[in-house]
Amino acid sequence: MTGAALAATVRLDRPGFSLDVAIDAAPGEVVAVLGPNGSGKSTLLGVLSGLLVPDSGHVRVGEETVTDVDAGISVPPHRRGVGLLAQQALLFPHMTALANVAFGPRAAGIAKRDAEARALSLIADVLPGLDADEMARRRPSQMSGGQQQRVALARALAPRPGLLLLDEPLAALDVDATPAMRSLLRRVIRDAKQTALLVTHSALDALVLADRVVVLDAGRIVEQGATREVLTKPRTPFTARIAGLDLVPGTACTDGLRTHDGTLVSGLSAEPLVDGDAAVAVFAPSAVSVFRDRPAGSPRNALRVRLAAIEPQGDTVRLRASPPADGPAWLDGLAADVTLAAAAELAVEPGAELWFAVKATEVAVHPAAS
Amino acid sequence: MSVTDDAPQAPPTERKRDRRHERDVALPRWMWVPAVVAFLVIALPVAGLLIEADWARMPELLTSEAALAALRLSLETAAASTVLCILLGGPLAAVLARGRMPGLRTLRSVVLLPLVLPPVVGGLALLYLVGARGLVGEALRLGFGVTVPFTTVAVILAQTFVAMPFLVVSLEGALRTAGERYEAVAATLGASPALTFRRVTVPLVLPGLMSGTVLAFARCLGEFGATITFAGNLQGTTQTLPLLVYLQRETDDAGAIALSLLLVVVAILVIAFARPRNTEGIR
């Protein structure tokens, strides 16, 4: 694929784990990498940045092949033009903000005065509304966590990397600092057409920042596509969970989906499906009504579950299900969002048996990934 | 957009611990007894020196030719050995902390040997290696006409041998604490390993390097066993202060005490110089 900013096919084996993925990014594209812990996201970033050496495969950044195991090419990290912004800011504690941001350009041989001018304008850019000259003189210990992460972003951008790797850049921030940092990332990464790979756990981050989503599980890509498409029509339980949706796997049938234990989940299919094909039924937790006794009447889908956890979420409460003693495993993790008042009225504790009901019109059936 | 969301805007200064209002929660009362005894074990002998000292003769004793020569030799050789420890032990610590090849654990155990070995044994080992009939010594003598034992060079070698582990151990600890994350970041910013070492690694481990250097220097100053075995006791060439103290003790107690006090003063200066952040542990 010519013209790609990133084209990589890598395989890395270690005891109990193997990473085997092909991933690419067009110039200016932001690709989000989603995946549960241990799915290989960090390993992938390590391989791309050159800190890890894969067992086979190749990595091309821009026009340059930086890794080609067969040809024996392995460009060291500092000559790849691949930047990294991690969870922690990791600003060099013995340098001022200015020296931190100027570090990359200085390493590239740019004269001190020019490097510092570039650094100062980047600092002004990532810390709008603050005195850039004054901030530039501060040491990391004299800045808040959010400010440190902003300066770390400026530092990662300063050498003008061909590819920027963002490793959960918002995960370690205070809740209060996250939205502003997210919109800053949107401005300086997505709007500025900086090619980037974003590892995240958050559907919101992916929606705001990424053009495309790749879902990793156990070292393999299980799902990928345009962000909105993937997150609204998840095909794997993990993606559904990230997207905040409920997902039931099974096979397509006339009225919706039949699970492997024979339960019928009524729903509407958005695309034509052949009976018996692998499929998933997807619905929003907010579409689920919760009852203490089996609901009578209209809802076509009523599922008997055991309440596993109660998770407060602002104005609503998320009730997380687990299978009852004799129930099927796919009930595990299904969520229902109810108002605080409704939760109080139910007056239940984890372990109680409940009924989750969802109208057929709220259930979308999609072809499954596998 | 503003960034006042999460900001303590004023630079937070390092907050001093307010000890006046704190209560001890982890110090059982009985512990004071052994603690005081331990302190006395260290402090009383030094105080004894002060009491026993012949203060009237002090200037004369300290300015004797042998004393001045020994002090000078001690400071010079300790400085030279410390520099050697930094130049050689620094990279060794880096290899031990950052290297990825197998066998490093064995290597580390060998490096620790001088810490547990009696210095006399170290001196003997050096003598048999670099001595006139030693493996390296013979080659040096035949090849270059150089003999090392019983020279100032031998003093420096003996001190380097016993002091090296102090520098390596504290520096390796500092390197491990600092971790490789900053270095990985520097690499992704385009810094070569050499630049990363100079601009990131060294500044980060500077406190550890300082305390290691001070420890090594102090160890060199106090070195006795390996020196007397390998370098002998020749005034002006190999007779360092500890050796002179030992020699004087047989003939002139007052002189030995005066020189001992001189070593105590040097030691206190070394600690005072190094202490502020290095030997008080991590806060």
What does this structure look like?
Chain A: One of its GO terms (molecular function) is ATP hydrolysis activity. Chain A: InterPro entries: AAA+_ATPase, ABC_transporter-like_ATP-bd, ABC_transporter-like_CS, Mo/tungstate-bd_C_term_dom, Molybdenum_import_ModC, Mop_domain, P-loop_NTPase, Transp-assoc_OB_typ1. Chain A has 370 residues and is α+β, with helices and mostly antiparallel strands. Chain A has helices spanning 41-49, 97-107, 112-126, 132-137, 145-157, 178-190, 203-209, 227-232, 237-242, 340-346; strands spanning 6-14, 17-25, 30-34, 56-61, 64-68, 73-74, 82-85, 163-167, 196-200, 212-217, 220-226, 246-253, 256-258, 264-266, 268-269, 278-283, 288-291, 301-313, 316-322, 335-339, 353-358, 364-367. Chain A has a 6-stranded mixed beta sheet with strand order 7-8-9-3-10-11, with helices on both faces. In chain A, strands 14-13-12-16-22-15 form a 6-stranded mixed beta sheet. Chain A is globular and about 75 Å long. With 283 residues, chain B is mainly α. Chain B has one domain (60-97, 109-278): Orthogonal Bundle (MetI-like fold). Chain B is globular. Residues 1-14 and 278-283 of chain B have low confidence and may be disordered. Classes of the chains: A alpha+beta (370), B mainly alpha (283). The A-B interface holds A 49-51, 76-79, 81-84, 86, 88, 90, 92-94, 103-104, 107-108, 127-130, 138, 141-142, 144-147, 150, 155-156, 158-159, 161, 165, 173-174, 176-177, 179-180, 183-184 and B 1-8, 11-12, 14, 181-182, 184-193, 195-196, 199-200, 203-204.
